[in-house]
Design a protein that fits this description.
CATH class of the largest domain in chain A: Alpha Beta
Structural class of chain A: alpha+beta
Keywords (chains A, B): DNA-binding, Transcription, Transcription regulation
Organism (chains A, B): Amphibacillus xylanus (strain ATCC 51415 / DSM 6626 / JCM 7361 / LMG 17667 / NBRC 15112 / Ep01)
Largest sheet of chain A: 6 strands, antiparallel
Number of helices of chain A: 7
Order of helices and strands of chain A: HHHEEEEHEHEEHEHEEE
Strand content of chain A: 35-45%
Number of strands of chain A: 11
Protein name (chains A, B): Putative GntR family transcriptional regulator
Shape of chain A: elongated
Oligomer: homodimer
GO molecular function, one term (chains A, B): DNA binding
Distance between the termini of chain A: 38 Å
Largest interface: A-B, 55 and 55 residues
Pfam family, one (chains A, B): GntR
Radius of gyration of chain A: 22 Å
Chain lengths: 239, 239
């Protein structure tokens, strides 16, 4: 039985927790140094350290070694990972306005993975687009999209925010499902900087091949989601 | 049209790729410095840099800034994220022998999240266990498990590797499904070290509440998977 069964501890803990939840401290705000923070809540430094431990476990704050303790922002978007939506749709669902910053658009030779993913032999050139997707102007997702340039020529991709809609407009085909790999990314030299991530802010990468209802492979995407903005959940069942 | 449509490039690329795939370079092996590596394949340093770029994209190698280029190990385990198995089962499926190193076992007061997760008011004490799970002796998953100490007393948890089996033995109840949150972790001060991760090796955290077929919450787990050893995929469908 540790310090946790101390009612003074529980009372101070719930005061701090309540203050964070009702917004006394702002998302990403750095909390006062431990000795000052302890004074505010009239506890010892030792107890305040245990309180912060607990809040770290509850994911209300993050401790950055040698830097300080920061209030975690609430994710803007939480969704079942098995639900496929375009990034624009996900941002809209969260009540935010989606935007796009183009980083690059080019025509490239297919890589070995592209041949595997698109799985047809007459794949000649790939239209490859890199974009930053924003929510209310803030960068939250980095998207690398690849399509067969004979199906959706790269010049068309600038016209619309949603590649799902663009593919539908050009080909009449609708994306029905995707096979996705889920990968954690600690820090990406290029992408973390573009998404304004602090060094300890991680990304969730979904590498996904999209198919039409006739199982035709039509779009490959790598989406890097800022993990403080997007939260995914899943129901796992015993097989 | 970049350097990729150069047939010399494509030939050298496929030679290096082939050598990595057939095991000329071992998993986690550091490749020679660029100028030496270029010499071996009789290419220019510039072209070898483009080849390495491509192999990074194909996830065959990882570039650690200022350190070098390393061959990626193949994941030992790849599974649908919606399939719930115990960690022991997952390691066995990969043809490896699961093992356990106990880190801590203690009885603690429930946190606010515990009350939310277990969702009954007569929750008094939590049995909390931290373990390192190994595959053929190598640490691959860090597990924090919590159960109601009145249901599964903490003293019992040492006896068996699989908490799923232990819960079944003691209570007669079987775990049927879990609600899981999927979270990328860049570097965890404690856990990354215990799992022998290099600073750029990330972890996938599944925070999951397990239920019986009668929807009774029975086990809360946080599993930190080394991302080079475990790979998860999911089929995402349009709603």
């Amino acid at each position: 039985m540790g310090i946790e069964d101390n009612s003074e501890f529980m009372q101070a803990l719930s005061k701090v927790r309540h203050d964070i939840e009702r917004g006394v401290y702002l998302p990403n705000e750095k909390l006062q140094p431990l000795y000052e923070f302890a004074k505010i809540y009239q506890t010892s430094q030792e107890m305040m350290r245990a309180i912060v431990d607990q809040l770290v476990e509850e994911r209300l704050v993050t401790r950055r070694l040698g830097v300080g303790v920061f209030v975690n922002p609430k994710p803007i978007y939480s969704s079942g990972i098995e639900e496929l939506g375009s990034v624009s749709e996900m941002i809209k669902k969260a009540g935010k306005v989606p935007g796009t910053q183009f980083v690059a658009a080019e025509i490239v030779e297919p890589t070995k993975s592209d041949y595997n993913n698109f799985n047809y032999s007459d794949l000649k050139l790939i239209a490859r687009v890199e974009r930053v997707r924003t929510a209310d102007g803030e960068p939250v997702v980095y998207c690398i999209d690849k399509v067969d340039n004979d199906v959706v020529p790269v010049g068309h991709i600038h016209r619309q925010d949603s590649i799902f809609n663009l593919i539908h407009t050009i080909t009449g085909k609708q994306i029905e499902y995707a096979h996705a790999y889920v990968e954690p990314i600690g820090y990406h030299d290029k992408i973390s900087q573009i998404l304004n991530c602090s060094p300890d802010q991680s990304l969730l990468l979904l590498r996904q091949m999209h198919y039409t209802k006739d199982d035709e492979p039509i779009l490959y995407s790598e989406n890097y989601f800022r993990s403080d903005a997007f939260q995914f959940h899943v129901v796992r069942k015993r097989m």
